[in-house]
Amino acid sequence: MQSICRHSSVNLRAKWSLLILLIAGAGTGCTSLGAKPWDHDLLAERAMQVDAYPLQSGMDDHIYFSKEASSGGRSFAGGGCGCN
Amino acid sequence: MQLKASGATGAPTLRQALKVAAAGLLANGAAKAQEAPAKPPATSVDSGVLYYHENGRVQAVEPELNVAQKINEDSTLSLGFVFDSLTGPTPYGAVPSTLPQTYIRPYKIVPVGTLVPLTTSSGGSTVVLLPPASGSKTETLAATSIVPANTYPLDPSFHDTRVAGHVGWDQALTSTLKLDGGVAYSHEYDYRSASASLGLSKDFNAHNTTLSAAVNYESDLSFPVGGTPTPLTAMSGDFKGPDATRHEVDAVLGITQVMSRRWLSTLSYSYADSHGYQNNPYKIISVVDPVSGQPTAQLYESRPESRRKQSVFFENKIHLPSDVIAISLRGYKDDWGIKSVTADLRYRYQITQEYYLEPHFRYYEQGAADFFHYYLVAGEALPQYASADTRLAKFNAQTYGLKFGMPLNKGSELNLRVEYYDQRGNGSPSYAIGQLKQQNLFPDLKAFTVLLGYSYAF
Fold it and tell me: Considering the domain B14-96+159-225+245-277+307-368+385-457 in this protein, what is its CATH number?
């Protein structure tokens, strides 16, 4: 039992170390990520918006909600209808 | 006839050919649309009409209109309206048989003595009068339908209309902090849903990183035609129990990162906790004879009264020299035992600066809910939960789509999208009993949609 606990605690410590490394990596990486304010021209286009066509993606979510068991992800999982 | 090469470089590319095809249209709209607006638009209108058609089953028409109005530099009010109309047969959940089968459901309660034309049909069903209990002042009309032998049982009486609306408010609190909230309401002839949401987003790293969090509370009321059936009781024409409620809390956490001038990445996690009535009150599950496989009873389905759903969504948008690629992946799981993956790919092919074609492919695959059964077997103990709704079965689905977009005038876009959806499951499980071996227990679902969209900002 003790060895199992020690083993899981080692695993847990390894996972935390990995997570901290990832966060630290992402933190330092973030300094080179991004675009200067004057380079946001392409990002300002409609096609590059996070949800460029919200009305259409809402209609799609409604269809898939009524034909499949999964929902949510990009937005809320509630369907707001009795179609499932 | 001798064909000549087009120009010194040989045959024209597809992009060049489409440019020529679009040239006439370009002369008016696009030239105007390319003019840069003097200031950001204060009002935007987004509208669309969707036509949905399944092979031999449901069809739907859904117009929708959303309007957003800037109130001042920091505030935007948005309003939305949707209307749905659905008609057509939908699966009962029962298995087919080599014999004709009769299904019955409650239809209407009328005072005793009301003259009822018993041959009246309701969406293809025949209305029958059930004998009233002695002393009762009312009597029940029930709708029956006969499903021919070797035919997948579909309820011909299905129809629905839905009206929904929402009001939202966006408020910039600082140059990097934004609050948004909204309420929504949806009403069907047998269901209503009300919800309220609140979200917060914060920009970091010179607006290159956005963290967002949002919560939503939804309260639903189900009032099925004929009342709410008790799970795992026999299908009948009698009126059932009172209305049923369901409540759901949703939360979404997200991070959006500008990776470079041409690359935007989004990662989000959503969690939903739902309690209350989760059944589809019209769905049944067959109990079959252990030898012949013939249905001996039809029971109303039984789902758990709670559900926890989790999903992770990851999307990348990459701006090529003129085209845009959007790739997303979603992983989903819930405590009903359902796991799924979704992959979605869109390629926006700019024919010109304003005209585009966008092919779309989506792949979806899900595992079955723990309590999904094609049927139950007579003589075996009834499980606590059981559903034969194939939406809870293991299946995969593909969507193929193509969208064409063009400007009509400055600040506007008209687009037309056509999509085809193909869902396939296992219609012949190896353990099928008796006559069920020769039946298709999961017919393919094929549907196409046509979506006409128009948006305008001014």
Answer: 2.40.160
